[in-house]
User: Fold this.
Amino acid sequence: MTTTTETAGGIQVVKPTVASHIRDYFARVRGGDLGTLPAVLGLLVLVLIFGLSRAETFLSALNFANLFNQSAQIVFIAMGLVFVLLLGEIDLSAGFASGVCGAVMAILLTTHGLPWYVAIPAAMVTGIVIGLVLGVLVAKLGIPSFVVTLAAFLGFQGVLLTLLEGGKNISITDEFVKSLNNGTLSVRDSWLFAIIGVLGFAAAQLIRWRGRVSRNLVAEPLGIVVARIAGVAVLAFSATYVLTLERAVNKAITSLKGTPIVVPLIVVFLVIWTFVLARTTYGRHVYAVGGNTEAARRAGIPVDRIRISVFVICSFMASIGGILVVSRQSSVDPNTGGSNILLYSVGAAVIGGTSLFGGKGKVIYAVIGGAVIIVIENGMTLLGLNSGVKFIFTGLVLLAAASVDALARRRASATGS
Amino acid sequence: MTTTTETAGGIQVVKPTVASHIRDYFARVRGGDLGTLPAVLGLLVLVLIFGLSRAETFLSALNFANLFNQSAQIVFIAMGLVFVLLLGEIDLSAGFASGVCGAVMAILLTTHGLPWYVAIPAAMVTGIVIGLVLGVLVAKLGIPSFVVTLAAFLGFQGVLLTLLEGGKNISITDEFVKSLNNGTLSVRDSWLFAIIGVLGFAAAQLIRWRGRVSRNLVAEPLGIVVARIAGVAVLAFSATYVLTLERAVNKAITSLKGTPIVVPLIVVFLVIWTFVLARTTYGRHVYAVGGNTEAARRAGIPVDRIRISVFVICSFMASIGGILVVSRQSSVDPNTGGSNILLYSVGAAVIGGTSLFGGKGKVIYAVIGGAVIIVIENGMTLLGLNSGVKFIFTGLVLLAAASVDALARRRASATGS
Amino acid sequence: ACGTDDGGDTGTGTSSSAGKVGVILPDTKSSARWATADLKYLTEAFKAAGVEADIQNAEGDKTRFTTIADGMIASGVKVLVIVNLDSGTGKAVLEKAKTAGIATIDYDRLTLGGGANYYVSFDNTEVGKLQGQGLVDCLTEKKAAKPVVAYLNGSPTDNNATLFKQGYDSVIKPKFDAGDYVKGPDQDVPDWDNAQGGTIFEQMLTQNKAIAGVLAANDGLGNAAIQVLKRNKLNGKVPVTGQDATVQGLQNILAGDQCMTVYKAIKKEADAAAELAIALAKQETPSTATKTVVDPETKAEVKSVLLAPQSITAANVKDVVADGFVTKEELCTADFAEACTKAGI
Amino acid sequence: MAATPLLELRGIDKSFGPVQVLHDVGLSVYPGEVTALVGDNGAGKSTLVKCVSGIYSIDAGTVTFDGREVSVHSPRDAAALGIEVVYQDLALCDNLDIVQNMFLGREKRRGIVLDEATMEEMAGETLRSLSVRTVKSLRQLVSSLSGGQRQTVAIAKAVLWNSRVVILDEPTAALGVAQTAQVLELVRRLADNGLGVVLISHNMNDVFAVSDRIAALYLGRMAAQVKAADVTHSQVVELITGGRSGNLGLPPERPSDFIDITPGEVKK
Amino acid sequence: MAATPLLELRGIDKSFGPVQVLHDVGLSVYPGEVTALVGDNGAGKSTLVKCVSGIYSIDAGTVTFDGREVSVHSPRDAAALGIEVVYQDLALCDNLDIVQNMFLGREKRRGIVLDEATMEEMAGETLRSLSVRTVKSLRQLVSSLSGGQRQTVAIAKAVLWNSRVVILDEPTAALGVAQTAQVLELVRRLADNGLGVVLISHNMNDVFAVSDRIAALYLGRMAAQVKAADVTHSQVVELITGGRSGNLGLPPERPSDFIDITPGEVKK
Ligand SMILES: Nc1ncnc2c1ncn2[C@@H]1O[C@H](COP(=O)(O)OP(=O)(O)OP(=O)(O)O)[C@@H](O)[C@H]1O
Ligand SMILES: Nc1ncnc2c1ncn2[C@@H]1O[C@H](COP(=O)(O)OP(=O)(O)OP(=O)(O)O)[C@@H](O)[C@H]1O
Ligand SMILES: [Mg+2]
Ligand SMILES: [Mg+2]
Assistant:
């Protein structure tokens, strides 16, 4: 039997129970409303495939840790791109923008001999300025973002070449910068980070739940909230456990354990941007402009300013991606941020579930989609195929991961939601 | 004074005169409804810039003829992409698809020693099959086209590498194939082509005008129709005049004059696709699906089939682009169709005025946009800048061309149309 | 689930004592050699020695390069052979390998400051010098007076292209300075893209109709230039250089359209590298690395095997065939049968 | 009146995810009659129409057309049966003009070429009969039309064809006085020509002016289907707002799985 | 009634490209009064509203608000003046839910965090007062709402704020009987609170039920602005369909630049 309760505005609603909540969830899934489920499913399938074919290497603690470092650039660019995509715009220049910012940092560190706490902010500021310029061109002049950022894509390639004086590589030696995407937290800090993270998540969830219940608004049953917290805790702790195993290749020579430093970096930005999008006026306005620009304009939202701001965020995140890739490679060259970086980043956001038409997407989608892309890249290289075949397989595996997603979503249109 | 007349359904309308028509045109332009005008303006500005800075070379007959050959691949891919973009989809794989098709042709010609009339159709069929597969994946499985074609972009790169056994170049020697994007019509045929083309255009325009007038429908004043025909005639004949000038680099050794063979190829496809989009049921349905998929579905249009078909057309056009680029280089390598080809092709369509959100665009836009892109490429290489500076300038010039467009269009949103 | 570092090798044959070897090749764009020649020869060499090898290509992508390296290190290779994409990434990988206790070999390209254990290579600057000298010879043969020489360089983002250019500049620039040659257009071809190369050269010719010699950085770009020259019936009149001794390049040489190419006996290089790697994998001290190269950055000496590239003209095309680098069937197709006979193949 | 219904729905259920919108709905449409489908906002009228026309798939229930049980999976199927629908959310292609929209999916052709002149003439005639004024040109994009003009185009589009059942979902909502009269007249004329017509409307005057039968939906359930002559204006309003009126309508005891989500009554 | 109009338009011209839609239109809105704006389909009512609210720029004419001449370049400016509009083409963000749409652009915050709970409560209260039934949850996406539910959300959105002029463009078009009554009552209540209200409607009963003044647009020209008490139902219909009625309305001789595009009269 269901019990009803009265909520805001006197609307009678069914009091949700754990059972009804789970029943509703499955009904929603059958109805095609899936959130990140399909991308996560696709990820699981991939892990299964690679895990079965290269168990000892793909599933090793070392490889697991490597995944985070390898994904850093794409995940950061993709997180920024989510904002741009939410508005139905595109930024083709994000890849090379990250290269330019990375190069700015590298040059300041080496040629100018400045310390990291000058060079890193300088790179970030470069990103912000780039975003401002792109945003203004799109919002104020009204040039389609595809064209603006295509021009920027070419221009930044040239800037990068010029910064690197026609093709030199610049190696960096700054230990702090190098540690960003190579170093690890100590085992103690790794656990500390996991515990603080889980506690923070639990607190946020419970406070929110309390707030709604106390004001007599429809809230999830406590059981579901607790289950969600438990799930996150299990994930976080088991990941930390694996990451704090000894994973040095040659244990005699060196020891390597602890959560890679990029993990807290990714988590912090994920939390910040998720908060911004879900819980602030600004985020609400981003969704509104992306969903229906005209409606947003009529509601008095400063559409142009929002449009500029997403390009700033995107280029800013690209700058961090650039810093991290330079850190990882300890060097910057004229192709940093080139190649497939951009397509992969957009792909990451889209696979995660972000719409290219605007209005639909979350930052977590970029992280999950980035994981899909990197697992494919990582797994494929472990198979040791020759180039041609590897490209073909990469394409096929990407398609397979996306099909899981598409098939899961298929019923959505059939049932009309 | 205006005179009115009664038209279909007994609606009273003003009988348009040449004067009123011109007045209306300017009112429309002021109101922001501009068609290809801005792109053409952008093109003129570019020609002016390069013409002033490199008059003797950029404005030479040789360079003018070269423009057509150089643009062939991008223009063909862009024409195909217009169909995909009209549906709000994207095809990232069109570049490498053209490479794969070119490679298929080259391999059949050389390794298998087959004649061109087998190899060329085989390449086209390859294109069609590629399009079918992409289309089915997008339409039937419902995977976003960005992801499908990103996978295909990777996959085809692998196919190309595999076809070329890991990176060999294959030279073709077939004279017919080589003539496609290198040869010229004889001077007589060049003029014949221009005259037939202009007569055909005139006939089409006048028959259409007669048809409307005879059924008492609102028609343009005859003066405007005649002026339009005259404009096209002047353009065609002056281009033909320039192209039939002697343009050999070393006139002592060889003679080179006549319209490049690609010009009739481009014109024929432009006419065919323009006809298909504007005057057939199929074209109407493409616009409808792009404008409002749901409305099209409710009107009983087979949306899936339309969606598949545009990918087929796109890949088919890419295959021709591939054939032409292989013809031009007389060789195919693993990078044929790679690099910036795809971004440039999409850019061409978008600069011309095609919307990435679907429903808005014409095939001619791809040709004009392609001209913008190629004039930039062509002019930039004449300036002899170093790589970095060249990239930066290319970006800036592209932006400048797009700004002309954007500024001209700006009022559109201000006046609300 | 995967704590053991032992590869689980249970066999007792000779191979059991040898560890696994990882090889990372750079790309498929700068030259066809990586995917066609090196891969084949290395695979054969390792197979012959019964040593397990994992050979991968980074597709010109540095991120992928490091990803592959991570994967190989994770899978427990004992020797890592790399052709770096640039010294920075190369160095990062070498350092990681070293901390993991893996022996390293720089193959074909020296990683500056990387401190690899061994170095096997053709000298890229030397390749450029051969190209420059080849062009000079052809121009002299054509008795060109004050010829305009155009440069069609490799990818601006490829460090090798820079090295090649250093090589040919060292030969030709003095001629410019002396006024013997006239400097013509000088442009890079992004991604070594042949189609773009063709367009760029076409524009060079539009810009300067007097171009009398083309220094193209490899055979693909050479062929692109030759096609433009053909269109203007200038092929054979304007010498064009190349590199890699590809079938296409050799055919162009036989046809008289290309002046020379540079042949790097990749099999020798591959065999030398494989030999080193096999020795290291078996934990023996290799004896073949007799020369040394000084790392310009650290001034440290790296034990090296150095091989000499060879300049190929119509006169010695047969050497390449004799070497088995290209087969007669590939080269002497119907169109070139006559030329082949003439060249003594 | 005809004895057998032309279109008959039985036991239609439809859920969107966890929300069930239609519960066991039945409806009969007779040839030569106008059936008014009434119901409060959110009662499920438009959803029912979309189930019939194949836009939504139904979860349970049968659709019988002309005595045969049919399954309608897409609007194409519905059109093939001869069912035409004017949707509440008009669904016009903003990037096409009036004529193009009116003939969408059924373009007139001469050979393979579109016969624009004929279509333009036919469109003009139809619009004229619907009292459309102030349209500047038949070649105006529908994106630039006023609300009422858009609605007229949608109606004109549906009545151009030789269909057997025409369903109009609030066709006169945005129309002016004269245009509304024309549309009601058209509705009557269609029925008199032997078509089955379903008219959804919130305007009781309009409903009583043209309809032969009235079907009232209440919270996703069919409360009653009655002859228009047998009920009064206020009885219908009671059916709409309360689901029953006297001995008409839903049983007084609520079905057990039914949850009232009506907001607390606001005091008048 | 108040002597000076709160909002006054004078000589408004508006063209879209070559098409002139508004010719020299004037309109006065008085505080405490409901001014009904009527006119045939395509007469230019919605265009006029959009000119006032800054969505369209005007080609000529002045807007006076509270005695000061103002220039409204965007909906932000209009909102700053205290002008709220319910548009005919509702303009809701389909990807947001009911509460989010209702507070769009004026979110309640606590610090930098959105105060969802307060907004949800306020939205619930407002909807309750508008007799909204069958909304399953305040967190439903508006894309899944029925036509009437969407319209209610749009209305609720406009009346949540302390504005001085409220303009409603056909607010009851999609509403059911009870909801319509509620909205009309709301309109009256707003005026009684001293606001200036403009109501656009095609329903003469509604117009006469609540309005104090009636302004009739005819083919883009203001035919007459009269007190509701001074005219009859049929006079207003004549003004709408013909531009004049007796000595009211446009001068009988047509202005010279005026072209009649009315289709030939259809015989009744
Ligand atoms: N896609 C959907 N997902 C969830 N609920 C939906 C969806 N579509 C409609 N609904 C709900 O179904 C109910 C019925 O909607 P419907 O549009 O059929 O109402 P209606 O009777 O046409 O109302 P109106 O008179 O306002 O047009 C509404 O409560 C609506 O919120
Ligand atoms: N962007 C535009 N471009 C061209 N014409 C337009 C545009 N917008 C509106 N019109 C025309 O202006 C006229 C007035 O339109 P408007 O929407 O103001 O009418 P309305 O009085 O609101 O009609 P309704 O009662 O049908 O809503 C119509 O004839 C319409 O076709
Ligand atoms: Mg409805
Ligand atoms: Mg209106």
